[in-house]
């Protein structure tokens, strides 16, 4: 004869309300923990790919390894928070993704080398032109003391400001406006990064660079080859310009002279 089990309801429904609440919280927390671990895993895979690209382009960019601080920033910032929900599964692919309004979040490899080329010190004040999603600004904020960033599409600027605040990046100021003219009120800057391509280097940005400072900018026409350019201003204010790598960026719109 078998054992007669007491007929009854499944145990879950017999739990008291506090216990059920507790169980729900535990399973939710577990789901988040798995997701967080998964994203961390995806980020480390992304880092491998970036480092491979860096080794391949070593001759052009003049280095085969990224600064350890830049790598640490890339492995920390949650890129999935900066892309539209429909692209979250691809957030850690080493490629650009649409962020709406015809704009894109840059390829992680490009973010990595542009950031590395700025040679940021902990006390640096940085200007970014082209906030977009705010991802590049967050990476900069991990390495510098303050980031000023300008976006010309009002809705993107507002969304990025809200996102950066939510993620705790209080050291980033977002302004909606035309970045061609820089942000004279906060100049001079230790470093300036431009993430949309003008046809010529905007003179106001060179002016707003500190002696000893670096400007990294894609330059070129919409249908012509663009080059990533490193501009260095030495202690005497002398300018040195180097073309590093062919790249593809959305055009810098706004007050610059026509193409
Ligand atoms: N750095 C961004 C990606 C930038 S895409 C990120 O991490 O997501 C380039 C951005 O430059 C776009 O959002 C575009 O609207 C903006 N842009 C174009 N011309 C501009 C200008 N004159 N001033 C400020 N932003 C500009």
Write up what this structure looks like.
- 36% of the residues lie in helices and 22% in strands.
- The chain has eight helices and nine strands.
- Helix 2 packs antiparallel against helix 4, helix 2 crosses helix 5 and helix 4 crosses helix 6.
- About 3% of the residues have low confidence.
Strand-helix topology:
Elements: H1 11-14, H2 17-56, H3 58-61, H4 68-76, E1 97-100, E2 103-105, H5 108-117, E3 125-129, H6 135-143, E4 146-151, H7 154-166, E5 172-176, E6 189-194, H8 203-207, E7 209-219, E8 226-233, E9 239-247
Parallel strand pairs: 3-4, 3-6, 4-5, 6-7
Antiparallel strand pairs: 1-2, 7-8, 8-9
Helix pairs in contact: 2-4, 2-5, 4-6
CATH architecture: 3-Layer(aba) Sandwich
Shape: globular
Question: What topology, given as strand order, has the largest sheet?
Answer: 5-4-3-6-7-8-9
* CATH top-level class: Alpha Beta
Tell me the span between the first and last alpha carbons. Answer: 91 Å
Mean pLDDT over the full residue set: 91
Classify the helix fraction into a percent range. Answer: 25-40%
Please count the helical segments.
8
Bound small molecules, by name, code or SMILES, are: S-adenosyl-L-homocysteine
CATH topology: Rossmann fold
Q: Approximately how much beta-strand content do the residues carry?
A: 15-25%
Radius of gyration: 23 Å
- Estimate nothing, just give the exact number of structural domains: 1
| CATH homologous superfamily identity | Vaccinia Virus protein VP39
Largest sheet: 7 strands, mixed
Q: List segments where confidence is low: pLDDT < 50 over at least 5 consecutive residues.
A: 7-13
Q: In total, how many beta strands?
A: 9
The sequence of SSEs as H and E is HHHHEEHEHEHEEHEEE
- Class per helix and strand makeup: alpha/beta
């Amino acid at each position: 004869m078998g054992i007669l089990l007491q007929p009854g309801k499944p145990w879950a429904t017999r739990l008291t309300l506090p216990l059920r609440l507790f169980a729900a919280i535990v399973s939710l927390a577990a789901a988040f923990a798995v997701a967080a671990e998964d994203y961390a895993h995806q980020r480390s895979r992304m880092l491998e790919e970036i480092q491979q690209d860096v080794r391949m382009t070593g001759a052009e960019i003049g280095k085969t390894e990224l600064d350890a601080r830049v790598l640490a920033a890339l492995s920390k910032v949650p890129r999935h928070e900066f892309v539209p929900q429909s692209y979250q599964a691809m957030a850690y692919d080493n490629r650009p993704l649409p962020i709406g309004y015809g704009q894109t979040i840059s390829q992680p490899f490009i973010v990595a080398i542009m950031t590395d080329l700025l040679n940021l010190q902990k006390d640096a004040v940085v200007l970014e032109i082209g906030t977009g999603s705010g991802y590049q600004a967050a990476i900069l904020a991990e390495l510098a003391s303050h980031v000023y960033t300008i976006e010309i599409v009002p809705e993107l600027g507002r969304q990025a400001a809200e996102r950066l605040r939510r993620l705790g990046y209080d050291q980033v100021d977002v302004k909606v406006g035309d970045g061609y003219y820089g942000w004279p009120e906060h100049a001079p800057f230790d470093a300036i990064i431009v993430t949309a391509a003008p046809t010529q280097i905007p003179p106001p940005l060179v002016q707003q660079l500190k002696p000893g400072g670096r400007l990294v900018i894609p330059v070129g026409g919409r249908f012509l080859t663009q080059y990533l350019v490193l501009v260095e201003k030495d202690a005497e204010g002398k300018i040195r310009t180097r073309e590093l790598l062919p790249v593809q960026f959305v055009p810098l719109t706004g007050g610059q002279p026509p193409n």
